[in-house]
Design brief:
Layout: H1 3-8, H2 25-30, E1 33-34, E2 42-43, H3 48-57, H4 69-91, H5 97-107, E3 113-116, E4 123-126, H6 130-146, H7 148-151, E5 154-156, E6 165-167, H8 180-196
Antiparallel strand pairs: 1-2, 3-4, 5-6
């Protein structure tokens, strides 16, 4: 379930819900493994169906592609390569060569293509399965790396439990959280509780 769907239904988001708030596509994908700073992490891509659902909720495709265990494992490899590359960008160092190989391999697959609707205002994405979705994700990371302005603004979330990379689009370049709606709000709550004590 997307962030918007959860809010529309009037319920709190579950830890397993996908997060897209304020996130670039590639880093929203890295965020499918939550609580990276904790001993027990939350795997949001636990089953192949989860990856199919993420593909639609992310906007990469309009029809959930079928997915098997091997594709899910490949997606997780790509996710971790993106995570490590995001950390490298935040630290101002080159990504590991093996991560570059994984990202380039995914990007080399045919991507989904946009199809403009007759109304001229809406778009649907057509692609050939999970590989097309992962190609879009990998290409988003490559586009980020190709932009000096963007890659120098990659940060790691200030929530020690999170660890997700994000692009700091604030004018001052001082954003600390991957999202103010999740990690930023949590930090404010913690600060308030500490002050109240």
């Amino acid at each position: 379930m997307s962030d918007e769907d959860g809010r529309r239904e009037g319920r709190q988001r579950a830890k397993t819900d996908f997060r897209f708030d304020d996130a670039r596509l590639c880093f929203a994908f890295a965020g499918t493994l939550a609580d990276r700073g904790k001993d027990v992490r939350v795997e949001r891509l636990a089953l192949p169906e989860d990856l199919s659902r993420w593909s639609v909720e992310s906007g990469c495709t309009t029809v959930a592609p079928s997915c098997d265990e091997a594709e899910l494992e490949g997606a997780r490899r790509l996710r971790e390569a993106i995570q490590r590359t995001g950390v490298a960008l935040a630290e101002g160092v080159p990504p590991a060569p093996e991560d570059v190989v994984v990202v380039n391999g995914a990007a080399a697959e045919a991507t989904s293509v946009p199809v403009l609707a007759a109304d001229g205002a809406s778009v649907r994405w057509d692609g050939d399965g999970i590989a097309a979705v992962l190609s879009m994700v990998a290409r988003d990371l490559i586009a980020l790396c190709a932009s000096e302005e963007q890659r120098t603004r990659v940060r790691i979330c200030g929530n020690p439990d999170c660890g997700t990379p994000f692009v700091d689009t604030s004018r001052a370049g001082a954003r600390r959280w991957c999202s103010m709606k999740t990690c930023g709000a949590l930090a404010k709550k913690r600060a308030y509780r500490a002050k109240a004590k």
